Protein backbone atom coordinates (compact mmCIF):
# COMPACT_ATOMS: atom_id res chain seq x y z
CA UNK A 1 0.00 0.00 0.00
CA UNK A 2 1.32 3.44 -0.85
CA UNK A 3 1.76 5.57 2.28
CA UNK A 4 2.88 9.15 1.69
CA UNK A 5 2.91 10.28 5.32
CA UNK A 6 6.12 12.20 5.98
CA UNK A 7 8.15 10.91 8.97
CA UNK A 8 8.80 13.61 11.59
CA UNK A 9 12.59 13.58 11.12
CA UNK A 10 12.16 14.13 7.35
CA UNK A 11 9.65 16.93 7.98
CA UNK A 12 12.11 18.53 10.40
CA UNK A 13 14.94 18.33 7.85
CA UNK A 14 12.64 19.74 5.15
CA UNK A 15 11.83 22.72 7.40
CA UNK A 16 15.50 23.22 8.18
CA UNK A 17 16.37 23.18 4.46
CA UNK A 18 13.54 25.58 3.61
CA UNK A 19 14.58 28.00 6.38
CA UNK A 20 18.21 27.85 5.25
CA UNK A 21 17.27 28.57 1.62
CA UNK A 22 14.91 31.43 2.53
CA UNK A 23 17.19 33.08 5.09
CA UNK A 24 20.63 32.57 3.62
CA UNK A 25 20.35 31.76 -0.10
CA UNK A 26 17.50 33.82 -1.56
CA UNK A 27 19.47 37.07 -0.93
CA UNK A 28 22.15 35.82 -3.36
CA UNK A 29 19.66 35.74 -6.25
CA UNK A 30 20.63 39.31 -7.12
CA UNK A 31 24.37 38.71 -6.69
CA UNK A 32 26.27 39.75 -9.87
CA UNK A 33 28.09 36.40 -9.73
CA UNK A 34 24.83 34.81 -10.87
CA UNK A 35 25.66 35.40 -14.54
CA UNK A 36 24.35 34.52 -17.97
CA UNK A 37 26.52 31.39 -17.65
CA UNK A 38 25.02 30.45 -14.30
CA UNK A 39 26.52 30.93 -10.85
CA UNK A 40 30.31 31.34 -10.96
CA UNK A 41 32.52 28.85 -9.14
CA UNK A 42 33.33 31.59 -6.66
CA UNK A 43 29.65 32.12 -5.82
CA UNK A 44 29.11 28.38 -5.58
CA UNK A 45 31.99 28.00 -3.12
CA UNK A 46 30.51 30.71 -0.87
CA UNK A 47 27.05 29.09 -0.94
CA UNK A 48 28.47 25.63 -0.25
CA UNK A 49 30.32 26.96 2.79
CA UNK A 50 27.02 28.27 4.18
CA UNK A 51 25.39 24.85 3.80
CA UNK A 52 28.45 23.18 5.34
CA UNK A 53 28.18 25.43 8.41
CA UNK A 54 24.51 24.49 8.82
CA UNK A 55 25.36 20.77 8.54
CA UNK A 56 23.14 20.38 5.45
CA UNK A 57 25.70 19.86 2.67
CA UNK A 58 25.11 16.86 0.37
CA UNK A 59 22.44 15.43 2.67
CA UNK A 60 21.44 12.94 -0.07
CA UNK A 61 24.81 11.09 -0.18
CA UNK A 62 25.08 7.46 0.96
CA UNK A 63 25.73 7.05 4.70
CA UNK A 64 29.03 5.25 4.07
CA UNK A 65 30.26 8.42 2.30
CA UNK A 66 29.02 10.90 4.91
CA UNK A 67 25.42 11.65 3.85
CA UNK A 68 21.98 10.87 5.31
CA UNK A 69 20.86 8.58 2.45
CA UNK A 70 17.18 9.52 2.28
CA UNK A 71 14.85 7.21 0.33
CA UNK A 72 13.60 8.43 -3.07
CA UNK A 73 10.27 9.60 -1.61
CA UNK A 74 12.12 11.40 1.17
CA UNK A 75 14.35 13.04 -1.42
CA UNK A 76 11.22 14.30 -3.17
CA UNK A 77 10.21 16.16 -0.02
CA UNK A 78 13.70 17.54 0.64
CA UNK A 79 14.63 18.56 -2.92
CA UNK A 80 11.35 20.40 -3.33
CA UNK A 81 12.26 22.47 -0.27
CA UNK A 82 15.77 23.05 -1.65
CA UNK A 83 14.32 24.22 -5.00
CA UNK A 84 12.56 27.24 -3.48
CA UNK A 85 15.55 29.19 -4.79
CA UNK A 86 17.30 28.03 -7.96
CA UNK A 87 20.49 28.55 -5.94
CA UNK A 88 19.28 26.29 -3.12
CA UNK A 89 20.37 22.99 -4.73
CA UNK A 90 23.72 24.59 -5.69
CA UNK A 91 24.35 25.56 -2.05
CA UNK A 92 23.24 22.18 -0.70
CA UNK A 93 25.26 20.28 -3.34
CA UNK A 94 22.22 18.47 -4.67
CA UNK A 95 22.12 20.26 -8.06
CA UNK A 96 22.66 18.73 -11.50
CA UNK A 97 24.90 17.45 -12.86
CA UNK A 98 26.80 16.69 -9.62
CA UNK A 99 23.85 15.07 -7.91
CA UNK A 100 23.27 12.49 -10.70
CA UNK A 101 27.01 11.97 -11.11
CA UNK A 102 27.44 11.31 -7.39
CA UNK A 103 24.58 8.81 -7.56
CA UNK A 104 26.19 6.94 -10.47
CA UNK A 105 29.71 7.01 -9.06
CA UNK A 106 28.49 5.72 -5.68
CA UNK A 107 27.05 2.74 -7.59
CA UNK A 108 29.92 1.85 -9.93
CA UNK A 109 33.19 3.60 -9.03
CA UNK A 110 35.86 1.39 -7.44
CA UNK A 111 37.56 2.28 -4.14
CA UNK A 112 40.39 4.32 -5.66
CA UNK A 113 38.06 6.14 -8.03
CA UNK A 114 35.73 6.90 -5.13
CA UNK A 115 38.54 8.43 -3.08
CA UNK A 116 39.97 10.47 -5.97
CA UNK A 117 36.86 11.58 -7.86
CA UNK A 118 33.68 11.05 -5.83
CA UNK A 119 34.48 11.94 -2.22
CA UNK A 120 35.79 15.44 -3.08
CA UNK A 121 32.52 16.11 -4.99
CA UNK A 122 30.43 14.87 -2.06
CA UNK A 123 32.48 17.06 0.26
CA UNK A 124 31.79 20.07 -1.96
CA UNK A 125 35.43 20.74 -2.86
CA UNK A 126 35.11 19.99 -6.57
CA UNK A 127 32.50 19.70 -9.31
CA UNK A 128 31.84 17.00 -11.87
CA UNK A 129 30.61 16.72 -15.47
CA UNK A 130 28.89 14.06 -17.54
CA UNK A 131 30.04 14.41 -21.14
CA UNK A 132 27.75 12.60 -23.57
CA UNK A 133 26.00 14.96 -26.03
CA UNK A 134 27.70 15.67 -29.37
CA UNK A 135 27.02 18.20 -32.14
CA UNK A 136 26.92 15.47 -34.80
CA UNK A 137 26.47 12.30 -32.77
CA UNK A 138 24.94 11.31 -29.43
CA UNK A 139 21.92 13.35 -28.30
CA UNK A 140 18.37 12.09 -28.00
CA UNK A 141 19.81 8.92 -29.47
CA UNK A 142 22.98 8.10 -27.48
CA UNK A 143 23.63 5.14 -29.78
CA UNK A 144 24.86 7.70 -32.35
CA UNK A 145 27.94 8.18 -30.16
CA UNK A 146 30.84 9.33 -32.35
CA UNK A 147 33.59 10.07 -29.81
CA UNK A 148 36.05 7.20 -29.91
CA UNK A 149 38.37 5.62 -27.34
CA UNK A 150 40.98 3.56 -29.21
CA UNK A 151 42.45 0.77 -27.07
CA UNK A 152 46.03 -0.33 -27.79
CA UNK A 153 46.34 -2.88 -24.99
CA UNK A 154 47.93 -0.39 -22.55
CA UNK A 155 45.46 2.45 -22.46
CA UNK A 156 42.82 4.45 -24.32
CA UNK A 157 43.12 7.46 -26.63
CA UNK A 158 39.96 9.54 -26.76
CA UNK A 159 39.05 11.83 -29.66
CA UNK A 160 35.76 13.64 -30.26
CA UNK A 161 33.69 16.74 -29.65
CA UNK A 162 30.89 17.33 -27.14
CA UNK A 163 28.58 20.23 -26.41
CA UNK A 164 26.01 21.32 -23.84
CA UNK A 165 28.37 19.92 -21.21
CA UNK A 166 27.13 21.50 -18.01
CA UNK A 167 29.76 22.94 -15.70
CA UNK A 168 32.71 21.93 -17.92
CA UNK A 169 34.75 25.01 -17.02
CA UNK A 170 36.53 24.34 -13.74
CA UNK A 171 35.17 20.82 -13.15
CA UNK A 172 37.73 18.37 -11.74
CA UNK A 173 35.79 15.09 -12.01
CA UNK A 174 34.98 14.06 -15.59
CA UNK A 175 32.73 11.22 -16.70
CA UNK A 176 33.19 10.80 -20.46
CA UNK A 177 31.15 8.61 -22.77
CA UNK A 178 33.12 7.26 -25.75
CA UNK A 179 32.91 4.30 -28.10
CA UNK A 180 35.67 1.68 -27.90
CA UNK A 181 36.00 0.35 -31.48
CA UNK A 182 36.53 -3.38 -32.09
CA UNK A 183 40.15 -4.21 -31.23
CA UNK A 184 42.33 -7.33 -30.80
CA UNK A 185 42.99 -6.62 -27.08
CA UNK A 186 39.55 -6.77 -25.48
CA UNK A 187 35.84 -5.93 -25.60
CA UNK A 188 34.35 -2.95 -27.41
CA UNK A 189 31.28 -0.70 -27.39
CA UNK A 190 30.02 2.49 -25.68
CA UNK A 191 32.02 2.96 -22.48
CA UNK A 192 32.31 5.40 -19.57
CA UNK A 193 35.67 6.82 -18.48
CA UNK A 194 36.51 8.71 -15.30
CA UNK A 195 39.37 11.21 -15.09
CA UNK A 196 40.47 14.59 -13.73
CA UNK A 197 39.70 17.91 -15.42
CA UNK A 198 43.32 19.00 -15.78
CA UNK A 199 44.30 16.21 -18.22
CA UNK A 200 46.08 17.37 -21.37
CA UNK A 201 43.69 16.52 -24.17
CA UNK A 202 40.55 18.07 -22.63
CA UNK A 203 40.07 21.34 -24.50
CA UNK A 204 37.21 23.65 -23.54
CA UNK A 205 36.47 25.56 -26.72
CA UNK A 206 33.89 27.96 -25.22
CA UNK A 207 30.90 28.34 -22.95
CA UNK A 208 27.64 28.52 -24.88
CA UNK A 209 25.16 31.39 -24.51
CA UNK A 210 21.93 29.78 -23.35
CA UNK A 211 18.59 31.00 -22.02
CA UNK A 212 18.87 29.26 -18.63
CA UNK A 213 20.89 30.65 -15.74
CA UNK A 214 20.90 28.05 -13.05
CA UNK A 215 23.82 25.67 -13.70
CA UNK A 216 27.25 26.48 -12.32
CA UNK A 217 29.56 27.81 -15.08
CA UNK A 218 26.97 27.19 -17.82
CA UNK A 219 27.31 24.67 -20.65
CA UNK A 220 30.55 24.07 -22.52
CA UNK A 221 31.69 22.98 -25.96
CA UNK A 222 34.50 20.52 -25.35
CA UNK A 223 37.04 18.76 -27.57
CA UNK A 224 38.91 15.61 -26.63
CA UNK A 225 42.16 15.77 -28.53
CA UNK A 226 44.21 12.63 -28.10
CA UNK A 227 43.14 12.39 -24.45
CA UNK A 228 45.27 9.52 -23.16
CA UNK A 229 43.84 7.52 -20.23
CA UNK A 230 45.12 4.37 -18.47
CA UNK A 231 43.02 1.22 -18.12
CA UNK A 232 42.24 2.27 -14.54
CA UNK A 233 40.19 5.17 -15.97
CA UNK A 234 37.48 2.74 -17.08
CA UNK A 235 34.28 3.44 -15.14
CA UNK A 236 32.57 0.08 -14.83
CA UNK A 237 32.89 -2.28 -17.77
CA UNK A 238 33.64 -1.69 -21.44
CA UNK A 239 30.46 -1.66 -23.56
CA UNK A 240 28.10 -0.78 -20.70
CA UNK A 241 27.88 3.02 -21.00
CA UNK A 242 24.25 3.10 -22.11
CA UNK A 243 23.16 0.82 -19.29
CA UNK A 244 25.02 2.98 -16.72
CA UNK A 245 23.55 6.15 -18.24
CA UNK A 246 20.07 4.69 -17.78
CA UNK A 247 20.93 3.74 -14.21
CA UNK A 248 21.84 7.40 -13.58
CA UNK A 249 18.94 8.86 -15.53
CA UNK A 250 15.87 7.28 -13.90
CA UNK A 251 16.45 8.89 -10.48
CA UNK A 252 18.17 11.97 -11.97
CA UNK A 253 15.08 12.80 -14.04
CA UNK A 254 13.00 12.67 -10.89
CA UNK A 255 15.34 14.87 -8.87
CA UNK A 256 15.10 17.48 -11.65
CA UNK A 257 11.30 17.29 -11.29
CA UNK A 258 11.58 17.74 -7.51
CA UNK A 259 13.83 20.80 -7.70
CA UNK A 260 11.76 22.47 -10.41
CA UNK A 261 8.58 21.76 -8.48
CA UNK A 262 10.08 23.80 -5.62
CA UNK A 263 10.95 26.63 -8.01
CA UNK A 264 7.49 26.60 -9.62
CA UNK A 265 5.91 26.78 -6.16
CA UNK A 266 7.98 29.88 -5.48
CA UNK A 267 6.79 31.44 -8.76
CA UNK A 268 3.21 30.66 -7.76
CA UNK A 269 3.71 32.25 -4.31
CA UNK A 270 4.99 35.43 -5.99
CA UNK A 271 2.09 35.44 -8.49
CA UNK A 272 -0.46 34.92 -5.69
CA UNK A 273 0.97 37.82 -3.69
CA UNK A 274 0.83 40.03 -6.79
CA UNK A 275 -2.77 38.99 -7.46
CA UNK A 276 -3.75 39.94 -3.90
CA UNK A 277 -2.11 43.36 -3.88
CA UNK A 278 -2.15 44.71 -7.45
CA UNK A 279 -5.44 46.29 -8.47
CA UNK A 280 -7.02 46.83 -11.91
CA UNK A 281 -10.53 47.88 -12.85
CA UNK A 282 -11.53 48.56 -9.25
CA UNK A 283 -10.37 45.40 -7.49
CA UNK A 284 -7.36 43.18 -6.80
CA UNK A 285 -6.52 41.37 -10.03
CA UNK A 286 -6.89 38.00 -8.25
CA UNK A 287 -10.61 38.74 -8.00
CA UNK A 288 -10.94 38.81 -11.77
CA UNK A 289 -11.96 35.32 -12.82
CA UNK A 290 -9.35 35.18 -15.60
CA UNK A 291 -6.57 35.56 -13.02
CA UNK A 292 -8.16 33.41 -10.30
CA UNK A 293 -8.50 30.53 -12.77
CA UNK A 294 -4.81 30.76 -13.66
CA UNK A 295 -3.89 30.57 -9.98
CA UNK A 296 -6.29 27.67 -9.42
CA UNK A 297 -4.90 25.80 -12.45
CA UNK A 298 -1.43 26.28 -10.99
CA UNK A 299 -2.45 24.95 -7.60
CA UNK A 300 -3.99 21.85 -9.20
CA UNK A 301 -0.95 21.30 -11.43
CA UNK A 302 1.55 21.64 -8.58
CA UNK A 303 -0.23 19.03 -6.51
CA UNK A 304 -0.59 16.68 -9.49
CA UNK A 305 3.13 16.98 -10.18
CA UNK A 306 4.00 16.35 -6.53
CA UNK A 307 1.90 13.20 -6.39
CA UNK A 308 3.24 11.92 -9.70
CA UNK A 309 6.83 12.40 -8.49
CA UNK A 310 6.11 10.69 -5.17
CA UNK A 311 4.48 7.76 -6.99
CA UNK A 312 7.50 7.17 -9.25
CA UNK A 313 9.83 7.56 -6.25
CA UNK A 314 7.78 5.02 -4.35
CA UNK A 315 8.24 2.55 -7.22
CA UNK A 316 12.03 3.11 -7.06
CA UNK A 317 11.92 2.63 -3.28
CA UNK A 318 10.28 -0.78 -3.91
CA UNK A 319 13.48 -1.75 -5.75
CA UNK A 320 12.10 -1.31 -9.27
CA UNK A 321 14.19 0.30 -12.01
CA UNK A 322 11.40 2.80 -12.69
CA UNK A 323 12.53 3.62 -16.21
CA UNK A 324 9.01 3.73 -17.67
CA UNK A 325 7.60 5.52 -14.61
CA UNK A 326 10.35 8.16 -14.52
CA UNK A 327 9.87 8.75 -18.27
CA UNK A 328 6.15 9.36 -17.79
CA UNK A 329 6.69 11.63 -14.81
CA UNK A 330 9.53 13.60 -16.40
CA UNK A 331 7.52 14.24 -19.57
CA UNK A 332 4.37 15.22 -17.67
CA UNK A 333 6.01 17.30 -14.95
CA UNK A 334 8.35 19.28 -17.21
CA UNK A 335 5.45 20.24 -19.50
CA UNK A 336 3.08 21.00 -16.60
CA UNK A 337 5.57 23.08 -14.63
CA UNK A 338 6.36 25.04 -17.77
CA UNK A 339 2.67 25.94 -18.06
CA UNK A 340 2.62 26.91 -14.36
CA UNK A 341 5.63 29.20 -14.80
CA UNK A 342 4.09 30.69 -17.95
CA UNK A 343 0.85 31.52 -16.11
CA UNK A 344 2.87 33.11 -13.28
CA UNK A 345 4.59 35.38 -15.81
CA UNK A 346 1.15 36.31 -17.16
CA UNK A 347 -0.32 37.13 -13.73
CA UNK A 348 2.64 39.41 -13.00
CA UNK A 349 2.02 41.50 -16.10
CA UNK A 350 5.02 43.39 -17.52
CA UNK A 351 7.31 42.74 -14.56
CA UNK A 352 6.80 39.04 -15.24
CA UNK A 353 9.41 39.18 -17.99
CA UNK A 354 11.83 41.32 -15.97
CA UNK A 355 14.39 40.38 -13.36
CA UNK A 356 12.47 42.36 -10.73
CA UNK A 357 11.32 38.95 -9.47
CA UNK A 358 12.90 35.48 -9.97
CA UNK A 359 9.87 34.34 -11.98
CA UNK A 360 11.37 35.11 -15.41
CA UNK A 361 14.51 33.18 -14.49
CA UNK A 362 12.45 30.23 -13.26
CA UNK A 363 10.42 30.32 -16.50
CA UNK A 364 13.53 30.20 -18.67
CA UNK A 365 15.11 27.42 -16.66
CA UNK A 366 11.97 25.29 -16.71
CA UNK A 367 11.80 25.80 -20.48
CA UNK A 368 15.23 24.21 -20.73
CA UNK A 369 14.11 21.33 -18.49
CA UNK A 370 11.71 20.16 -21.22
CA UNK A 371 14.82 19.26 -23.26
CA UNK A 372 17.43 17.69 -21.02
CA UNK A 373 17.38 14.22 -19.51
CA UNK A 374 15.27 13.35 -22.53
CA UNK A 375 13.08 15.77 -24.52
CA UNK A 376 9.35 15.18 -24.00
CA UNK A 377 8.97 13.61 -27.46
CA UNK A 378 11.71 11.07 -26.78
CA UNK A 379 10.01 10.01 -23.54
CA UNK A 380 6.67 9.73 -25.32
CA UNK A 381 8.34 7.67 -28.04
CA UNK A 382 9.71 5.27 -25.38
CA UNK A 383 6.41 5.15 -23.44
CA UNK A 384 4.43 4.42 -26.61
CA UNK A 385 6.84 1.64 -27.63
CA UNK A 386 6.38 0.01 -24.23
CA UNK A 387 2.59 0.35 -24.35
CA UNK A 388 2.43 -1.09 -27.86
CA UNK A 389 4.65 -3.99 -26.84
CA UNK A 390 2.72 -5.04 -23.77
CA UNK A 391 -0.80 -3.85 -24.72
CA UNK A 392 -2.89 -1.28 -22.83
CA UNK A 393 -4.66 -1.70 -19.50
CA UNK A 394 -1.67 -2.88 -17.38
CA UNK A 395 -0.54 -1.04 -14.24
C1 LIG B 1 20.30 22.90 -20.00
C2 LIG B 1 20.89 21.68 -20.62
C3 LIG B 1 21.94 21.02 -19.97
C4 LIG B 1 22.51 19.89 -20.54
N1 LIG B 1 23.59 19.30 -19.91
C5 LIG B 1 24.18 18.23 -20.49
C6 LIG B 1 25.35 17.62 -19.88
O1 LIG B 1 25.80 18.04 -18.82
N2 LIG B 1 25.92 16.58 -20.52
C7 LIG B 1 25.45 16.09 -21.70
O2 LIG B 1 26.03 15.16 -22.21
N3 LIG B 1 24.37 16.66 -22.30
C8 LIG B 1 23.73 17.70 -21.73
N4 LIG B 1 22.64 18.30 -22.33
C9 LIG B 1 22.20 17.80 -23.61
C10 LIG B 1 20.91 17.01 -23.55
O3 LIG B 1 21.13 15.76 -22.97
C11 LIG B 1 20.39 16.94 -24.97
O4 LIG B 1 19.99 18.26 -25.34
C12 LIG B 1 19.23 15.98 -25.15
O5 LIG B 1 19.66 14.67 -24.94
C13 LIG B 1 18.66 16.10 -26.56
O6 LIG B 1 19.67 15.91 -27.50
P1 LIG B 1 19.93 17.00 -28.64
O7 LIG B 1 20.01 18.35 -28.00
O8 LIG B 1 21.08 16.55 -29.43
O9 LIG B 1 18.61 17.02 -29.49
P2 LIG B 1 18.30 16.12 -30.79
O10 LIG B 1 18.70 14.71 -30.53
O11 LIG B 1 18.90 16.80 -31.96
O12 LIG B 1 16.72 16.19 -30.86
C14 LIG B 1 16.07 17.41 -31.23
C15 LIG B 1 14.58 17.22 -31.10
O13 LIG B 1 14.15 16.14 -31.94
C16 LIG B 1 13.00 15.54 -31.39
N5 LIG B 1 13.21 14.08 -31.28
C17 LIG B 1 14.36 13.41 -31.09
N6 LIG B 1 14.13 12.08 -31.01
C18 LIG B 1 12.80 11.90 -31.16
C19 LIG B 1 11.93 10.77 -31.14
N7 LIG B 1 12.40 9.52 -30.95
N8 LIG B 1 10.60 10.98 -31.32
C20 LIG B 1 10.10 12.24 -31.48
N9 LIG B 1 10.88 13.35 -31.49
C21 LIG B 1 12.21 13.18 -31.32
C22 LIG B 1 12.77 16.17 -30.01
O14 LIG B 1 11.76 17.16 -30.11
C23 LIG B 1 14.10 16.81 -29.70
O15 LIG B 1 13.99 17.94 -28.82
C24 LIG B 1 22.03 19.42 -21.77
C25 LIG B 1 20.98 20.07 -22.41
C26 LIG B 1 20.41 21.19 -21.85
C27 LIG B 1 19.29 21.88 -22.57
TrEMBL record:
Q: Which residues form the Acyl-CoA dehydrogenase/oxidase C-terminal domain?
A: 242-388
Q: Which GO terms describe its molecular function?
A: acyl-CoA dehydrogenase activity; flavin adenine dinucleotide binding
Cofactor requirement: FAD
User: Which GO cellular component does the record give, naming just one?
Assistant: cytoplasm
* Alphabetical keyword list: FAD, Flavoprotein, Oxidoreductase
Domain named Acyl-CoA dehydrogenase/oxidase N-terminal: residues? 11-124
Q: Does the keyword Oxidoreductase apply?
A: yes
Which SUPFAM superfamilies does the entry link to? Acyl-CoA dehydrogenase C-terminal domain-like (SSF47203), Acyl-CoA dehydrogenase NM domain-like (SSF56645)
Q: Which domain of life is it from?
A: Bacteria
Q: Taking every annotated instance into account, which residue ranges of this chain make up the domain Acyl-CoA oxidase/dehydrogenase middle?
A: 130-211
Q: Does the keyword Metal-binding apply?
A: no
Q: Which is a GO BP term held by this UniProt record?
A: fatty acid beta-oxidation using acyl-CoA dehydrogenase
Q: Which family does it belong to?
A: Belongs to the acyl-CoA dehydrogenase family.
Listed under subunit, the entry gives: Homodimer.
- Tell me what this protein is called: Acyl-CoA dehydrogenase
Native organism is: Actinocorallia herbida
Amino acid sequence: MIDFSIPSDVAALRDEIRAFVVEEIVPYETDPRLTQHGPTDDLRAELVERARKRGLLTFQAPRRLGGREPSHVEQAVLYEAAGWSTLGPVALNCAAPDEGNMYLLAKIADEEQTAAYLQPVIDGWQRSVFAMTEPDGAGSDPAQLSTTAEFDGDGYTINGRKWLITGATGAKTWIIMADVPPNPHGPHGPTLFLCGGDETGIVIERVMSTMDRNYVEGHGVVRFEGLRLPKSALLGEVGNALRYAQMRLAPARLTHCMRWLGAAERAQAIAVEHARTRTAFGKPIGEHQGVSFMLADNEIALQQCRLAIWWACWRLDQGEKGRHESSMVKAAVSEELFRVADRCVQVLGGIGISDETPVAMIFRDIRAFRLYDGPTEVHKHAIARQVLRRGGGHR
